[in-house]
């Protein structure tokens, strides 16, 4: 017989259930979406800004374009917006419907203090992000650090992060987690930069006055990035002020900079133009002219580089905005012997993009972009009546569309696609003589088509567990053949507590363009070559895991990451390869495997007068090229260390603010010596009877020796001068590169010693060549 429940018992049960469900009913109530864009008062988008409703424990961070989206329950709520280096802003909003509100934050009055104390990404945000191996650098931070010749270089600053190796003394080349230099995807506002170096690798092409921020991805690559194996370097340009016209620049030891920015049409848009040029050639030409009549004078080569950046944006309406970006950079080297011999060498990048951002709804935004990228070098020489020219180019036409979709507070979905038409100009050889007895014009180029489709979802599974999963389908078509692959990406974070998170990720990447070089350094004459015929796409896989821990009340962040990466179809040259103007260049290649593994330990502090970081990396990198194509391969097929393998790498960066006008900075670098191949001995050889004996070197396995360890201390002082009329901001930056004058090895050669009486060789002595001694510099920076 069914049991009957009295009225009072029913009421008690209902009240009990309502009490149990009350916390959940609060979340089930009607919500509306608050969205918009967070900028500085100068119009610059602020990625990573925090938008929160503290009373409800709700919050979000703006994306790389400064956009935010937050679901808030119905009613009057107080919203707080904050970003380091800017004054926080609080406002009240009545959420009875979806709303869009764009916000402008004013810089802190004590800007220098804020810059020193914190960077763009707080330690708490780095703890809570799902992705591993991500470093975000602002130019404000880079400008505080000591720099070679006083020229701020964002790529050299990235070398101070764990897992990133430099190519050698003074080089801005990057070798990330055992990958080669061509395996880095370098982007400027989503446009590909093929050669990011000036001055044969000593400086990067990025003018610090035009750059807003740089994101380095060493692992856990987001699905929207593809085409390279080791890292993504995502550089974003500043957008210019929408408030007022501003001029800023700097005068340094080797280069000067000037930037102009201001509003368009009463703040509906803004523009930024920035230029930089060195003045080596001004002095060398003057010296050459002054000594032209001196027969003993040896002419000094001319060299200079310049680059030009421009960006504009304009708001078409509440839902539409357009952006345009342009870059032009050139290096020019020239030599004239005052006689019949002359040589000239130029190289550089050109790119332009046009992007349209459209907001369909607070949940869905699209970015559509088209662009062109070109890299070209030209080498020419002339002697008497003969001339020689060699040219190599690569030109891309690109179109892409990216969608951001937020169907639910727990999901952030991204999807899109891109297509690129490549033209690889492998080499054009031109030889001419005055009497037309010899004329050669041989042009070798290959067209190709590359595309990709991707989708990813950042999923907040629970308060403790968050995952990001993605899939990319990439393809490449060349000479009627189609190559492709599926590239899964996955990252997961689990919070053990408010201060401790465990992380892990996996990524598979394909690379269809290959940088071919017969040297260990990245030179302008290196050639980009497509996947075709016997040259297959490179492929790599990487897994990594580790933890992030906040210490001492959140003032310090300690991270430890362990990674393992293995790669297939790695490319190198066989011995005696013919590189230039070779229509069968693919026959000169050897193919092998590579793998690397290591541990990266990183401690960072961003609060207080003394800030900075300490990074230590213990790593191994290997290569193996077995016998093939009628050769013994490389090293007879045995494993060997590539030239950029470093066992130990220690970086220490300290920034100390003495007062609001004066800051002291320093950085210390220590790395194990670079692998090198040096002769183990020599044997005598007489080519002809009665001729002199020749000492023929005997080489062991490749890279079996190590050069001496590399270490260097740089010191700097940033002195903010008192303002003068018209609100001018000025500072002097003093730098001392290699403060204790360490003579690091650039390369090693052997000097022959002979008997003074018989002139017979009696030995060989290894000699070290060092590139940079102690170098002081000063830079004057201004803004008005």
TrEMBL record:
Q: Which UniProt keywords apply?
A: Cell outer membrane, Membrane, Receptor, Signal, TonB box, Transmembrane, Transmembrane beta strand, Transport
Its localization reads:
Cell outer membrane
Keyword Transmembrane listed: yes
Q: Which GO terms describe its biological process?
A: siderophore transmembrane transport
Q: Which organism is it from?
A: Hymenobacter arizonensis
Give the way it sits in the membrane: Multi-pass membrane protein
The UniProt entry lists the main location of this chain as membrane
The protein, known as: TonB-dependent Receptor Plug Domain
State the family it belongs to.
Belongs to the TonB-dependent receptor family.
Q: List, for all copies, the residue spans of the domain called TonB-dependent receptor plug.
A: 150-228
Source superkingdom = Bacteria
Q: Any idea where the TonB-dependent receptor-like beta-barrel domain is?
A: 310-738
Extract the PANTHER family matched here: HEMOGLOBIN AND HEMOGLOBIN-HAPTOGLOBIN-BINDING PROTEIN 1-RELATED, TONB-DEPENDENT OUTER MEMBRANE RECEPTOR
Pfam families, A to Z: CarbopepD_reg_2, Plug, TonB_dep_Rec_b-barrel
């Amino acid at each position: 017989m069914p049991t009957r429940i009295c009225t009072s018992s029913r009421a008690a049960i209902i009240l009990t259930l309502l009490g149990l469900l009350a916390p959940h009913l609060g979340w089930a109530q009607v919500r509306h979406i608050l969205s918009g864009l967070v900028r500085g008062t100068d119009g610059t988008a602020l990625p990573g800004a925090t938008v929160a409703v503290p009373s409800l424990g709700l919050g979000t961070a703006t994306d790389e374009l400064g956009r935010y989206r937050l679901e808030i329950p119905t009613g009057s709520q107080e919203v707080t917006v904050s970003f380091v280096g800017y004054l926080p802003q609080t406002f009240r909003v009545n959420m009875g419907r979806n709303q869009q509100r764009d916000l402008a934050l004013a810089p802190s009055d004590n800007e220098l203090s804020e810059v020193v104390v914190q960077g763009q990404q707080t330690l708490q945000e780095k703890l809570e992000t799902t992705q591993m191996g991500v470093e975000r650098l602002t130019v404000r931070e880079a400008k505080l650090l000591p720099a070679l010749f006083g020229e701020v270089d964002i790529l050299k600053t990235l070398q101070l992060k764990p897992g990133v190796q430099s190519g050698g003394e003074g080089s801005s080349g990057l070798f990330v987690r055992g990958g080669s230099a061509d395996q880095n995807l370098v982007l400027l506002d989503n446009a590909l930069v093929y050669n990011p170096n000036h001055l044969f690798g000593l400086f990067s092409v990025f003018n610090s006055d035009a750059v807003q921020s740089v994101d380095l991805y060493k692992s856990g690559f987001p699905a929207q990035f593809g085409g390279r194996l080791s890292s993504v370097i995502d550089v974003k340009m500043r957008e210019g002020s929408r408030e007022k016209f501003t001029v800023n620049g700097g005068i340094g030891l080797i280069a000067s900079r000037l930037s102009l920015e201001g509003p368009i049409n009463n703040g509906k848009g803004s523009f930024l133009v920035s230029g930089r040029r060195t003045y080596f050639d001004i002095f060398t030409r003057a010296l050459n002219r002054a000594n032209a009549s001196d027969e003993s004078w040896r002419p000094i080569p001319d060299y200079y580089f310049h680059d030009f950046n421009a960006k504009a944006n304009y708001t078409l309406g509440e839902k539409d905005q357009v952006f345009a970006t342009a870059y032009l950079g050139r290096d020019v080297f020239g030599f004239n012997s005052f006689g019949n011999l002359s040589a000239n060498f130029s190289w550089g990048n050109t790119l332009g993009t046009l992007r349209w951002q459209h907001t369909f709804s607070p949940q869905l935004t699209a970015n559509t972009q088209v662009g062109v990228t070109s890299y070209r070098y030209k080498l020419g020489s002339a002697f008497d009546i003969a001339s020689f020219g060699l040219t190599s180019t690569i030109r891309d036409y690109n179109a892409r569309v990216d969608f951001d979709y937020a169907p639910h507070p727990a999901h952030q979905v991204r999807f899109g696609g891109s297509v690129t038409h490549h033209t690889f100009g492998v080499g054009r050889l031109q030889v001419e003589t005055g009497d037309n007895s010899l004329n050669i014009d041989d042009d070798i180029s290959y067209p190709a088509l590359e595309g990709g489709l991707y989708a990813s979802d950042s999923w907040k599974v629970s308060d403790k567990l968050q995952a990001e999963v993605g899939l990319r389908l990439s393809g490449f078509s060349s000479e009627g053949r189609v190559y492709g692959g599926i590239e899964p990406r996955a990252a997961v974070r689990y919070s053990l507590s408010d201060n401790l998170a465990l992380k892990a990720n996996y990524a598979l990447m394909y690379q269809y363009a290959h940088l071919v070089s017969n040297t260990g350094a990245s030179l302008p004459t290196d050639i980009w070559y497509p996947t075709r015929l016997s040259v297959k796409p490179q492929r790599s896989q990487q897994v990594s895991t580790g933890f992030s821990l906040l210490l001492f009340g959140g003032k310090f962040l300690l991270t430890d990451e362990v990674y393992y990466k293995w790669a297939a179809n790695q490319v190198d040259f066989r011995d005696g390869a013919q590189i230039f103007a070779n229509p069968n260049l693919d026959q000169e290649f050897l193919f092998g495997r590579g793998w690397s593994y290591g541990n990266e330990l990183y401690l960072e502090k961003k609060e207080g007068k003394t800030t900075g970081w300490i990074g230590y990396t213990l790593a191994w990198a290997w290569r193996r090229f077995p016998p093939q194509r009628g050769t013994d391969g490389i090293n007879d097929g045995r494993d060997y260390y590539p030239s950029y393998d470093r066992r130990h790498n220690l970086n220490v960066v300290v920034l100390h603010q003495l007062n609001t006008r004066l800051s002291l900075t320093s950085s210390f670098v220590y790395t194990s010596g670079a692998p090198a191949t040096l002769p183990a001995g020599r044997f005598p050889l007489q080519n002809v009877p009665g001729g002199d004996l020749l000492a023929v070197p005997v080489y062991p396995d490749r890279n079996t020796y190590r050069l001496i360890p590399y270490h260097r201390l740089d010191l700097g002082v940033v002195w903010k001068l008192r303002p003068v009329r018209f609100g001018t901001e000025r500072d002097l930056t003093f730098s001392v590169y290699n403060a204790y004058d360490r003579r690091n090895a650039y390369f090693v050669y052997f000097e022959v010693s002979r008997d003074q009486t018989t002139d017979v060789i009696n030995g060989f002595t290894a000699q070290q060549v060092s590139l940079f001694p102690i170098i002081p510099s000063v830079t004057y920076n201004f803004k008005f």
